[in-house]
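Here is an idea for our session: we take a single protein and study its fold together. Once you have written the record down, we can walk along the chain together.
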Amino acid sequence: MNTSSDNINANSIDNTEKKFRYWQNRTLISTIICYAVFYIVRKNLSMAMPGMQADLGITKAQLGGFLSLHGVVYGLSKFLSGFAADRFSSRHLLVCGLLMCSICNIVFGFSSSLTLLGVVWVANGLFQGMGFPPIARLLTHWIPPKELATKMARWNTSHSIGAGLAFIICGSVVSLGWRWCFYVPSLIALTCVVFVWISIRNTPKSVGLPEIDETETKNKNVEETKQAEHVSAEAESKEYKRLLMKKVFKNRPIWILGIANVFVYTLRFAVLDWGPTLLKEWKGLSLADAGWIVALFEIAGVLGILLSGWITDKFFEGKAHRVCVFCMMFASFFMFLFWKVVSAPAWLYITFLALSGFFIYGPQALGGISTANIATRKVAATAVGFHGFWGYLSVLVTGWGVGIMTDKFGWSFSLGFLVWSGLIGAFVFALIWNSKADGYDDI
């Protein structure tokens, strides 16, 4: 009788584990697709900018203003959405945000007024902020901390996949006119809204599974799990407020990771936002070819993300911030070569740009992973929103700033600025070299 009972219990545990792995993988894949589509209706402007300059007579400084205002509003929205994601349904927030982004893109494509274009693109930034914090919340519910660096590194390929697809899709249709860079992505986003609603669930509990127990993930010998508190009850509790202050706003590593993120995004967004225009004007390439080259920057970034996540877990015991120091140094080195080796054959300067992308996407992914782990899953969405807000302060420089710098001093000056940004970022990451991998020991 005991043997039979043990077999039944073993089968029950095995079925629960299989079901959990199914939903974990489903959530990971679904959120990768979802966030990639957020990028398709965000980075499409980069491919449309040369056409907008010619058609509407818009200057680089004005286009940079679009990018900066969009980025600042997006950063604020990302921060505030972190609070919302810790309290409300991640699934609902994702659906609402992506739906509104698609509508903004449709309106933008039909507009010609500079003022209306600016207002609509800022609104797009507002709704774009509803993307990452809910996903961060979802992933910390579905992925234990000891697996987070590797699996979230896989998830972070969504940035590169989405941006790369934006450049490829828009490069394919821009010959029809710059407005098609908004029509086609908006239709893709509307389709994805339905997909997200069908495929994503907020927590293991919502599909009849036990929640991840932090104690289990830190101590391998513990096999029991516990039911997590309801999100709204947790958010209203004194314990939540205590954790918010301790793990986010009074947490030195969280602040340093945020400041470092400014320099990560400065290098990354300058290439994404201005790459097609730079390659067209500086190298004399067609927009279609420029789009493929910037997409290669993104594809290389996918490989960099995966490798940096694996290296973090395999050799650095989850201390992702240490890996970021080396990645930033190499990203700056290859950006320097891209800048200075001006007479090189095309394949060589394209390789330098791709290698810079390979290394810059490690810190882009690992910074958020470190932030989520240090803050713990109880306040992960707020912490990641805070981290993202710092990153998007960079758009004041990469948008309006790069536009003005390039108008006055040329592309060479702007590229030198990016090299120094990467080196400063490496120094800032190094300030927390001795920090712990996560904050679960000190909740």
In short: Confidence is low (pLDDT under 50) at residues 214-232. The two ends are 43 Å apart (CA to CA). DSSP finds 19 helices and no strands in the chain.
